[in-house]
Design a protein that fits this description.
58% helix
Amino acid sequence: MTLLSLEKIFAAIRGEPKKYKNSISLYTHLPIHSKWTIPKVTHTWDLFDNTTFNCDDLVLNKAATGIINAYEVYVLRFFQYYDSYENLEQILNVLPLKSAPFVMGHLGYGKQAAFGLLLARYFDRPNFNLLVDEYKKLLISLPPDMALELQEIIIKTVDFLKENNIKAVLSQ
């Protein structure tokens, strides 16, 4: 899977090369990240009976079925779309930079910066240095501890790219 290769590199950049197997690249939360409209996931279940306003096992079972069915549809589309280096690069590196439209774990911006820069180099984007500068601009909007971690990840990612051929690494 494409994300696993990026996770291996990210773990190495962070100095924890064996931890990539336990890392979550991106995950989703149905109501928040689908906004009930992407990709046309609809909210068609109620947690109570509309006539009596009671909540019983039958209503909850029906709601659970609706949630599971919607989630299965959403998750398949979600991961199929993001399982492409090109799609992922274009989403992560849209200028002006903003938070990725999905959750990237507790390292959020750091992982977005690393993945975005790795993929920008992979596709030989002419604006690579501009992207580095744009990711650095995010530092001023973050709390000091998060800014320091992001700065370190950006520096280590750029150093990794100077020392390694990203196309060769990702094609392994």
